[in-house]
Structures are given as C-alpha cells and as structure tokens.
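Subject: design request, 693 residues
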C-alpha cells in the first residue's frame, strides 16, 4: 500500500520532468509525446540518472490517462458515427489483424522461437494503440473522415484483441479452444455490448441533459467522469478492457448532444493523466534488453510499420475510401501499444513464452510510438507520391472505384438481392470453416490417420503418410472450389447492384466498369476469407503452403484486374469525349440565356463514371495558372478530371502538364465527398496544397 508521501513524490517527479522535456520538444517543434517518453526514460529504473519514480504508482496513475483518453475519444464519436464507418472498420481490421498475426508467426519461427511464442508474437503486433493515436491526432489537429475511420478500426481491433486473449489463454493452458467455447466467448462479448448500449441509450443521454440543465460546470464534470469510471469498471468486471468501457461511456454521453461542453471540461484533466501514461511507457524501456534482442526488435518494428501500412491501406481502399485516405490510415495505425503489453504479459503469466518476449514487445511499442507522429505527418506527401507513381489505368480506377462503392451502399434492398447475398455469405463462411477444420484436423491427427492406413491397408509409413495427406487434400478440394465459386458469384451480384445491367438485347454501357468492379470485389472477398484462414492454419501447415495457395489465387485475379482497368481506361476516354460534347452544348445553351443540366442527363448514359459534375474556373480561383500536377487535385481530394472544356476546343483526359486557365470548365468524377472537396479547392474555399517533391 502506497502512502500519501510516495504518491506526491512520484506525481511531482513525473510532472516536473515531463514539463521540462515537453517544453524542450515544443521548442524543437517535435511532438510532445516524444518528450513524455524521454521523461519516462529519465526517471525510469534502467538509466543511470539519480531520478527514479515509483513505477507501480506511475503505472496506476497511467491507467487513469488511458480511461480519460478513451472517454474523450468516445465523446467525438457517437454510436451513429461508428455505425457509419462500421463496415470499413470491420473489413479493414479483419484483413490487417490476419496479415499481422501471420507475419508475426513467420518472424517468430524464423528467429527460432517456439510455435506458441510465435503465435503470441503475431497477436502482440496485430493490435494498434488507441491511446497513442488519439494523442497524436489531437496534437496534429486531425479531424473528419480520416479520424472516424481510424477510430472505428481501433475499436474493432480492441474487440478482436479480446477474442485473441481468450483463444491464447486456451492454447497456452493446453485446454484447446473448441467451436463451442469460441461461440460462447463471442456471444458473451456481443451480449455485453448490446446490453450496455441498449440500457445506456435509455438512461445516459437523459441523465446527462438533466445534469447539464443545472448550469454548474463542476457538477457536469464530476458526473461525466464518474460515469466514465463506472462504465470502465463494469467492463473490467465482465473481463473486458477498461479502455473499451470508457469509450462506450463517451459514445453514450455523445448521444445527449452535450458532448462539446463536456469535452471542454474534461480536456485539462485528460491531458494531465495522458502525459503520465506516456511517461509510464518510457519508464519500462530497458536499453540493455533492447541491445540484447536488437535483431528481433528491428525486424518486428519494420514488420509492424510496413505490414500495418499495407494491411490497413488495402482494407480502407477496398471499402471505397480513396487512395489518400487509405494511405493516411495505414501510416496512422503503424504502431502497437497497451494491448500488446497485456498480451505479452498474459504469455509470461501462463509460462507460454520466454522472459524475452515482454521487453521485446515494449521496445517495439516504444519505437513505433516514437515514429507515429512522424508517419502521420508524412502521410499526405506519401499519399501524393503513391498517386503520382500509379499507372494511368490504376489512377482512373482509384478515382472511380469509390463512386461504385457509394452506389452499392445506396442501392435498394430489392436491387441488392439481399436474400441471395446472405445465403451466399453463409455458404462462403461454412466452406471456409470446414476447410480450416480439415487442415487443422489433418495436422493434429495425421499420425493416427497414418497408423490406421498402415493397419488396414497394409502399407508402410513412407507410403501411408502421403496417402493420408492426399485423402485430406481430396476432401478439402470441394470446399476450395466452393470458396472460389461463391466469391465469384457474390462479386457479380454486388457489382450488378452497384451498376445494374441493361435488359437483354440492349447495349450495356456499364460493362467495362462492372467487369473492373467484379474482379475488385472478388479480390476483396478472397482477402476477407483467405487472410484469416491463412493466419489460422499457418501453425498447422509446413512452410508457406496456405499463403502460397492464397497468393496464387490473388495473382490470377490480379491479372484479370489489370486487364479490366485497361479496358476501363478506354471506356473513360470514350465517355470523356461525350462529356466534352455535352459541355459544348451546355455553353451554347447558356450563351442563349437558358439553363442546362446536360451533365446530369449523362448519368444514365455513362454508368460507371459516377455523377460527372462540371465546375467553371473563375478569375479568383487559386487553380488558375497551375498545372494539374501542381494542383494535385486527385491526390488531395480523390476526384479526377475527366475532361476540360476551353472555348471551342476540348481536352480529353488531360495530362498532368495541362495548365488551367480562366473560364475552363472541368468535368469531375468521384464520390460526392471527393467532388465537394474538389469544388472547395477550385473555388478557393479550401487552400490547395503543394505537391511534395
């Protein structure tokens, strides 16, 4: 039990040293989070500086920082906002976590660690740090869609982490994890979330509004933080993280409509305890252990940054959010944090891992914490670079793909053939589950199967073992075919919902865009099914067999994807010529003093090009006199310029060197958000950003 003197001493040391380092880092124009971590290193037990704070007290206080940070994050994201990004968050988190678990297992085995240690390694590097990202976003003032997507992914990752911990506990204790146990774990989690949200929505918003009507800020602050800690404690009592409970408390409070006032009141308290959290991270950095296991630390750090960049970027892009948002999300999530410590500590407490894994996890977390602010800051220039380096067909596809996904989300239930889609999804999941059972079962019971073949058929072990593997492969083959067939059928159904085909006998002008969308949706489905399947079965397969099969399928689809994007480029060129003619007709009509909506009339004629929108450049536009490359409109907003009408001469799909002039009419394509962002840039209501060199 710590006395009041010890508490005051630890608090004074933490805050005073953190104040000095944060001032220095602000003077150097570096993120203050780095200053807090350096402060922790200074007052920690691993550096020979005569300033040592009580680690247990600091760790206890840091928990308050996590809870308050998550509560503040929840205040910004009501349940309605979370539901809006729910699909993007879920698909991205599944792809990213599956990829990282697989990579972690491979790296662990390559470093000579046991299979169990390698499985724990995969789980450790799979979950990003909500606390670190929240602080970095606050420092850099990042808001809007990017913040919503990243926070949504983090919440889904936290739920995945809970399932991972249950699974790893069963594996480490030798009890195994049956389908019934996993179903029970998921059911308990779902029941807790649904029960808390339902009851909370009935009670919390009304209570918060009643307290706010008293017009006493201190009462509102005490009531809000009291509610935050109560829900966090409730979550902990049910076996879940306090961070999840605090976030849900903030989301429930946000439903009251008073979240801005409460956020303003909570902010000073949150910032102080958040600083203590980052100091506590710095205190557990042991330079000696990092030096001892430097190879593992370096390799895993690179795997975390590159793996999460790829996994998150692919997931966010495939859900229709554009290249720029995808890359920014990937770079924002390229770190590990508090859940990694919990999982590493779990492996240590269960004697499932060696003593080395916990300090390695801490070191990787500390390094990626240090790199996170710089990666977030570099996200914009990196996104611009990637956009410029993409081949022209892929640039066109990336600009239009978001509008197709937008159409799919807006399609009516009748159009989406909901019953057929749900049936195919169920069959797809069933085939994938049975395939995993066959692979894992064959690996676990191959010895018994070989012995049975030897005794009944009379073959020697050298012959019986390959025969057993062949029988398992023959049994698994129909389910592999089923996954491929269902993925193709599901992709076609969804593509037809987004871009409905014409009646038989009529010219189908959406054929080229639909082919590109079908292949892309098939790639998405294969990743969503294949990535978790490979991550789950990798420990039971020799070498990279599962990954090789998935990679082969993705390569085949990739070839089809490239061909479809090339055909799409031709379709867009033809459509651009039609748009130019429409713009010419529009200018003639306007000169006659009449209104024209010729581009709106083109929407059904040119399916697959989104909703082409014309914007005329006025003399005050900041885009005048700049080339498209200098303006970087597609990289900044996601909207692409299909055509330019300049007087009587038209430019079909202008090049990057095309210089914009006063009076130019630009035909833009993209999602509604992209078009709105592009309009703001072209009219001067949003400042254009320079292209990074």
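Subject: RE: design request

Done. Sequence follows.
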């Amino acid at each position: 039990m710590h006395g009041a003197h010890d508490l005051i001493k630890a608090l004074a040391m933490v805050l005073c040293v953190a104040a000095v380092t944060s001032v220095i880092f602000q003077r150097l124009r570096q993120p203050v989070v780095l200053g807090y971590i350096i402060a922790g290193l200074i007052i920690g037990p691993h550096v020979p500086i005569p300033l040592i704070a009580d680690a247990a007290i600091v760790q206890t206080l840091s928990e308050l920082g996590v809870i308050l940070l998550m509560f503040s994050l929840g205040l910004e994201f009501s349940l309605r906002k979370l539901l809006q990004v729910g699909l993007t968050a879920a698909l991205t988190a599944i792809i990213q976590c599956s990829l990282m678990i697989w990579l972690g297992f491979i790296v662990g085995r390559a470093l000579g660690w046991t299979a169990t240690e390698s499985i724990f390694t995969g789980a450790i590097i799979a979950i990003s740090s909500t606390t670190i990202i929240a602080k970095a976003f606050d420092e850099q003032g990042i808001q809007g869609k990017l913040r919503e997507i990243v926070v949504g992914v983090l919440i889904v990752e936290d739920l995945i982490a809970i399932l991972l911990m249950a699974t790893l506990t069963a594996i480490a204790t030798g009890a195994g994890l049956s389908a019934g146990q996993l179903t029970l774990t998921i059911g308990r989690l779902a029941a807790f979330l649904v029960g808390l949200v339902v009851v909370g929505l009935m009670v919390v918003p009304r209570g918060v509004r009643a307290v706010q009507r008293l017009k006493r800020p201190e009462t509102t602050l005490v009531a809000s933080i009291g509610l935050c800690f109560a829900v966090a404690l409730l979550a902990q009592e049910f076996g879940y993280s306090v961070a999840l409970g605090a976030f849900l408390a903030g989301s429930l409070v946000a439903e009251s409509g008073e979240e801005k006032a409460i956020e303003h009141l909570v902010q000073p308290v949150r910032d102080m305890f958040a600083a203590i959290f980052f100091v506590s991270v710095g205190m557990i950095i042991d330079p000696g252990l990092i030096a001892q296991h430097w190879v593992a630390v370096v390799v895993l750090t690179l795997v975390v940054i590159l793996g999460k960049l790829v996994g998150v970027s692919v997931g966010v892009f495939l859900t229709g959010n554009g290249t720029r948002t995808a890359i920014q999300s990937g770079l924002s999530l390229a770190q590990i944090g508090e859940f990694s410590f919990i999982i590493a500590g779990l492996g240590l407490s269960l004697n499932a891992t060696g003593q080395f894994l916990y300090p390695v996890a801490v070191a990787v977390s500390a390094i990626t914490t240090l790199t996170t602010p710089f990666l977030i800051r570099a996200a914009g220039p990196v996104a611009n670079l990637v956009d410029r380096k993409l081949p022209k067909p892929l640039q066109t596809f990336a600009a239009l793909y978001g509008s197709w996904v937008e159409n799919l989300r807006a399609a009516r239930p009748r159009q989406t053939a909901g019953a057929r889609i749900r049936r195919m999804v169920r069959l797809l999941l069933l085939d994938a589950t049975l395939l995993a059972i066959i692979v894992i079962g064959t690996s676990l019971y191959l010895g018994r199967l070989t012995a049975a073949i030897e005794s009944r058929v009379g073959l020697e072990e050298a012959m019986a073992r390959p025969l057993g593997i062949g029988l398992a492969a023959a049994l698994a083959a129909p389910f592999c075919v089923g996954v491929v067939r269902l993925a193709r059928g599901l992709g076609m159904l969804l593509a037809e919902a987004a871009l409905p085909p014409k009646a038989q006998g009529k010219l189908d002008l959406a054929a080229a865009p639909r082919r590109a969308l079908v292949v892309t949706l098939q790639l998405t489905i294969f990743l969503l099914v294949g990535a978790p399947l490979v991550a789950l079965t990798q420990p039971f397969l020799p070498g990279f067999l599962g990954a090789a099969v998935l990679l082969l399928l993705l390569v085949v689809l990739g070839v089809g994807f490239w061909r479809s994007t090339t055909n799409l480029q031709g379709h867009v060129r033809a459509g651009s010529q039609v748009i130019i003619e429409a713009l010419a007709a529009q200018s003639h009509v306007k000169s006659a003093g009449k209104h024209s909506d010729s581009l709106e009339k083109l929407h059904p004629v040119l399916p697959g090009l989104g909703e082409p929108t014309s914007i005329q450049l006025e003399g005050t536009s900041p885009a005048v006199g700049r080339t498209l490359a200098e303006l970087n409109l597609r990289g900044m907003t996601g909207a692409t310029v299909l055509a330019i009408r300049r007087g009587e001469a038209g430019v079909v799909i202008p090049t990057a060197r095309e210089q914009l002039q006063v009076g130019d009419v630009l035909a833009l394509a993209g999602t509604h958000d992209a078009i709105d962002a592009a309009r703001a840039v072209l009219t001067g209501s949003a400042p254009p950003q320079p292209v990074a060199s």
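The CA atoms of residues 515 and 564 lie 6 Å apart.
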